[in-house]
Amino acid sequence: MIGLVLAAGAGRRLRPYTDTLPKALVPVGPEGAEESITVLDLTLGNFAEVGLSEVAIVVGYRKEAVYERKAALEAKYGLKLTLIDNDKAEEWNNAYSLWCARDVIKQGVILANGDTVHPVSVERTLLDARGRGQKIILALDTVKNLADEEMKVVVDPAKGAQRITKLMDPAAATGEYIGVTLIEAEAAEELADALKATFEKDPDLYYEDGYQELINRGFRIDTAPIGDLKWVEIDNHDDLAKGREIACQY
């Protein structure tokens, strides 16, 4: 199993940082600090801590910034990094971005969005949840109070995830998908096909819509509650401020 990071997004709501950097490289350390850590740093550190030795990173917008840091990141975290180019990163949404990594998913991956600040306990929770025939396991926050923007999930204890979408009454959701998934190698081909069907239907769809396509086809997707912990998806400057508060705790 290897790590996989989706780091192709532009993150326009984080300008001026993202004028020159992809969102995954926006600093989340103390404001103004030189050589500040980034979301990508935190994620690679988590992967290394749970024993992964290889990580693939899907890059697109301002990808040259990731290429420039590749050797330094490999040395810092003791990881072998493979960069995968998304040629439509500024045109299409991330269903296509995850599909670009379809070949590495065949090795089995822990997938992390490039904008999610979270502790290593999330990866440990997913790894500990393996072993009962699951093919895809979503990290789920069942504690947070939900609103309209969150990626919400409805879970049937007997059947696994049934719905995953932002377009849902928050009161109907079991929890929020936090942007980290364990995908076993056995799921790779079916997931790739579902993702392809998703972005061919609408290039603006999310990879979570690809998960829903799988569910609609009868594929079981499981979830693992992460407990009561601090994490944030960084979409804007308010999120970035929260990310800086959280990052210093880990």
Number of E-type strands: 11
Q: Could you say what the CATH architecture is?
A: Alpha-Beta Complex
- Percent range for β-strand residues: 15-25%
* Shape type: globular
Name the helicity range: 25-40%
Q: Report the CATH C-level class.
A: Alpha Beta
Quick check: average pLDDT? 90
Q: In CATH, what is the homologous superfamily?
A: Spore Coat Polysaccharide Biosynthesis Protein SpsA, Chain A
Broad structural category: alpha/beta
Organism: Streptomyces varsoviensis
InterPro entries: GlmU-like, NTP_transferase_dom, Nucleotide-diphossugar_trans
Domain Nucleotidyl transferase: 3-155
Keywords: Nucleotidyltransferase, Transferase
What is the gist of this entry?
InterPro entries: GlmU-like (IPR050065), NTP_transferase_dom (IPR005835), Nucleotide-diphossugar_trans (IPR029044). The protein has helices at 39-49, 63-77, 94-99, 102-105, 121-128, 188-201, 207-216, 237-247, and strands spanning 2-7, 54-59, 80-85, 109-113, 116-117, 136-141, 152-156, 160-165, 175-183, 222-225, 232-233. It has 250 residues and is α/β, with parallel strands linked by helices.
